[in-house]
unspecific monooxygenase (Pieris macdunnoughi), 512 residues
Amino acid sequence: MAVLQIAFSLIHELFVVGFVGFLLIYVWFKYRYTYWTRKGVTGPKPSFPFGNFNGVIRRKKQFFQPFCDAYFEYKKLPYVGLYSFNVPVLSINDPDLVKQILVKDFDSFLSHGMSPKPNDGDPLGGHLFNLYGSQWKALRAKLSPMFTTGKLKTFFPLINKVAGEALEYSDVIYEKGLSLNFSEFYAKYAMEIIGSIGFGIENDGFKKETEFFKFGHEYFQPSSVYWTLTRAISYFTPGILEKLQLNRTNPEINQFFYDLVRDTVNYRENNKYSRNDFIQALIDLQKSEKASGNKGFKFTFTDVAANAMLYMFAGYDTSATTGMFMAYELARNPEIQTKVREEIKCVLAKYNGEITFEAQNDLTYMNMVIDETLRKYPPLRALFRRCNKDFKMPDSDLVIENGTLVFIPIQAIHMDPDIFEDPERFNPERFTPERKAKMHPCHWMPFGEGPRKCLGLRQGYIQSKVGLIKLLTNYELCLDKRTITPIEVKVASMSTAAEGDIWIKLRKLENC
């Protein structure tokens, strides 16, 4: 009897402690949910414990959807206050204010917001995207020459080779009378280019399943709820991950790519082998910095591995996402597809039928089609910056406090009918060179804007184009009935991806 009394007493005490603990947490969250109200900022009502991200956590909404929803709900306001769990985040609606943050007052918003400190379990976290301040400035200056026109021309034969392999794979699919899963096809195409240029390896990914594609795809679209949640936390409260020494990315993925870079570097050093690719440029940078004895800038092997991952980060979404959605819109709009094909034929005739670096540069209308694709389907639906010092909003009493995360819902801006008339309609004529030159810089910004604008955007254009040039000169692209129309965004993906994939039926062109 005495034992039962002790047990009941213990259970009662644990219940009381647990209840009091829960109550304190609840009260603390509710107080935090008054943060924006106390600052005079309007926004949607948060709910315990996920704030305005209940749908995201439950995998009912894509990661950036709350910001897009808030844009249209509070469109007349320059900014909107939201909460991720109990963390206040500010969403910017006004394009002029966006320009202020990304360009004019860039020095107050230097960081993307994620911790730049790699640890033993996350050695690949210290790449350019995650760095800020003097570290970012020094590394960006070193990496920028790797994306010049001259360097891109040296990479072009490798891109063209992969595009040829992609066409051969398409031929096999056509001969079998099958439709092409374009989501998977262009993801493999992008990964093959990244493997070749970024990591210096040939995967034969169109002929077999590869670990490179498996781990690369998992890096961008985590299948696990745990890693999806961890990635979300890394955006909003990276300090928690740092304190608990938790990883943003599955350690198995990190280890695979770390070992891959190590093996590539060792092979090249041991065999005195060099190649015109991105990883060689990183190896050369490491050697030159070591030889110079530059104490202010250190570039170690871990930095080589981390920035090889940067190449994947910058190159995959831009080309894979853009290519698959571009194919979707061309299949839905055959008159636009015909116009693109005619331009390709006309331009290639000037270059003896060869797809050269100069030839793809001359495809003005195709560039317009890519720009319109990026308007409707930007790879990342929102940009994000963390305020690194108190910043007073212009023409306002609001002060954004140091450490506050700021989001810019670029897809909502891209789909605003007051900016782009009839935004659901796919219309490349919006992006004629003349119209694009007159456009507000923050009305269309799939690559960001200001000093942190994506370094690899030009290569992304090239990769997106070359694969489709090969296809369009041989096939007509038709939409397969398995493709969900209109497109539904895949909620589990951090980037823009189609639910159910995009399926394309190939129709062989005569006299091709």
